[in-house]
Amino acid sequence: MPPLIQSTVPVLASLEIDETIAFYTKRLGFIEALRMDDYAIVSRDGAEIHFWLCSERHIAENTSCYVRTADTDRLFQDFSARGLTIRPPAVRPWGMKELYVIDTHGNLLKFGERA
Questions:
Q1: What is the pairing mode between strands 64-68 and 108-114?
Q2: Band of pLDDT at residue 1, cut at 50, 70 and 90
Q3: What is the pLDDT of residue 41?
Q4: Which of 85, 79, 99, 91 is nearest to 29 (CA)?
Q5: Rounded to the nearest 5°, which phi and psi values hold at 108?
Q6: Interatomic CA distance for residues 12 and 105, integer angstroms
Q7: Which residues, 6+ apart, have CB-to-CB distance to 47 below 8 Å?
Q8: CB burial class (10 A; 0-12, 13-18, 19+) of residue 88?
Q9: What is d(CA 115, CA 106) in angstroms, rounded to the nearest whole number?
């Protein structure tokens, strides 16, 4: 029998859908999967992130999601090559090596792998 829960998909706030898609495709290497006036989906390597149009910046600035990865160093190199200025990954006290990205609207993305 297939598992009942197969994946989780974050749904983050977007203050402007076109800006969101531009940031995720140009700076993070995602592919645009859906664009509507008030909703969008991007994907990369089998993972999806959804966005809903929101007019309240404080919601995005107080939201985060965790993305498991196999190689934070390679992601750091990829994001940097795409013009993103971020700090390199670091090992955290909880045993994860993490890379942090804050998108154009304030959402925090934590990319992590076991240290």
A1: parallel
A2: confident
A3: 98
A4: 79
A5: -95, 125
A6: 10
A7: 67
A8: exposed
A9: 26
**CA dihedral sign of residues 62, 102, 72, 93:** negative
Q: Which amino acid is at 68?
A: R
Cβ contacts of 101 within 8 Å, gap of 6 or more: 28, 79, 84, 86, 108, 109, 111
Tokens (6 digits) for 35: 């664009």
Rounded Cα distance between 105 and 115, Å, is: 29
Please tell me the predicted confidence (pLDDT) of residue 6: 86
What's the count of helices (H) and strands (E) in the chain, helices before strands? 3, 8
Per DSSP, 62 falls in state: T
